[in-house]
Amino acid sequence: MSGATEEARTGSGRAGAVGVVLGVLAVAALAGFTAGAILGGDRVDMSQGLTLAAVFVLLAAFVVALAWWQTRRRAARLGLGTARYMKVVRRIRRGEVPDDPAELPAAIDAATRARRSLDLQDSRWVGWLLGGLTLLWFVTGLLNAFDGHYVRAGYNLVLAGLFLVNPLTMRRQRRRLEAVEQALRDRGRPSDHGTGGRSPVESK
After folding, report:
1. Dihedral sign, CA of 184, 190, 195, 197?
2. What does pTM read for this prediction?
3. Digit-coded pLDDT (tens) for 127-155
4. What is the three-class DSSP state of 96?
5. Separation of alpha carbons 5 and 100, rounded Å
6. How much is the pLDDT for 192?
């Protein structure tokens, strides 16, 4: 019974990993096509859009392959398969801690890395950078609208809106991570989050 459960868990993790990869490649293709076909001039250039989409997909595939290699090494160090490790990471991002003791080291590792990422994004220079990019996209969007380039204006304003929504997304991620850290503390993993905003478990 446990073998069937383990196989189902592994299959679910692989399906989720494949979904993430396909999603990244689809976004890269859409971004490349948009940049080439719509933002390159006053008219839609399909051939240029397809060319740039192919370039974006190749670059994204290289980045995904590199990230997968690093994740595979990390998962092996923690005694899990790559797909299962990635499933644990996704659960941590949702604010959940796995019940399987074998997955607890991976949960601790994922929580530690998530805390480092949030601490980095909370830094002042990142805030200034995001604020500057938001202002840049907003101003260029207005200028394009005044010049009659409404497609490019809409694209820039959408990007500015995404940057504005980012703080709300970060707030939700922070709440979920705090829930994970509390769950890890309840399992006997001491946390110094209250004194330094660090991960509930020191990285090895």
Report:
1. negative
2. 0.60
3. 788 788 888 878 887 887 787 777 677 77
4. coil
5. 12
6. 46
Our CA dihedral for 166, 168, 170, 172, rounded to 10 degrees, sits at: -150
- Does residue 79 carry a pLDDT above 60? yes
- In angstroms, the Cα distances linking 79 to 72, 85, 180, 191 are 10, 9, 21, 24
Neighbours of 76 (CB within 10 A): 12
pLDDT of 191 reads 44
Q: Could you tell me what percentage of the chain is helix, strand and coil, using 3-state DSSP and rounding each to the nearest 5? A: 80, 0, 20
The b-or-e profile of 180-201 (16+ CB within 10 A means b, else e) is bbebbeeeebebebeeeebbbb
d(CA 155, CA 162): 11
